[in-house]
């Protein structure tokens, strides 16, 4: 309750304990119109679903430690590529995982251009001109959304 009442007044919100469960869903917190939120709890990972990323309305979102499958991340990227969301507020999403992620599974069936002079960063482009720059590295993924 305190988070819901105080978060809209803050420039940056940090949550250092995972309070979410089946009754207290993280989705409604990710849908809040906030500038910057960091969820950080290495002992109890934050369970994420595909829809959680799709409804995110936070400018800069960081989740350490996130629990989401490579298949769901792949589906999220594919849905973003199709342009199903004409307005998508996040500027960046940063996720850390306990285990190393399978990069090939995340990009399966997705055409990803390499960033010039950087073998780790990739660029995804939509038909409407919007771009997503992504860095998948070990147990970490950073996604930056660029407006046209």
TrEMBL record:
Residues 26-85 form the Sdz-33 F-box domain. PANTHER family: CYCLIN-RELATED F-BOX FAMILY (PTHR22899), F-BOX ASSOCIATED DOMAIN-CONTAINING PROTEIN-RELATED (PTHR22899:SF0). This is Sdz-33 F-box domain-containing protein. Pfam families: FBA_2. It comes from Caenorhabditis nigoni.
């Amino acid at each position: 309750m305190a988070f819901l009442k105080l978060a809209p007044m803050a420039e940056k919100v940090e949550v250092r304990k995972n309070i979410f469960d089946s009754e207290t869903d993280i989705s409604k917190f990710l849908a809040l119109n906030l500038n910057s939120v960091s969820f950080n709890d290495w002992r109890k990972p934050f369970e994420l679903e595909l829809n959680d990323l799709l409804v995110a309305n936070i400018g800069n979102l960081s989740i350490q430690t996130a629990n989401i499958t490579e298949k769901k991340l792949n589906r999220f990227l594919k849905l973003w590529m199709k342009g199903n969301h004409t307005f998508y507020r996040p500027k960046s999403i940063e996720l850390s995982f306990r285990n190393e992620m399978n990069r090939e599974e995340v990009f399966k069936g997705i055409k990803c251009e390499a960033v010039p002079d950087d073998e780790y960063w990739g660029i995804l482009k939509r038909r409407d001109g919007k771009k997503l720059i992504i860095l998948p590295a070990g147990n970490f993924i950073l996604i930056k959304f660029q407006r046209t």
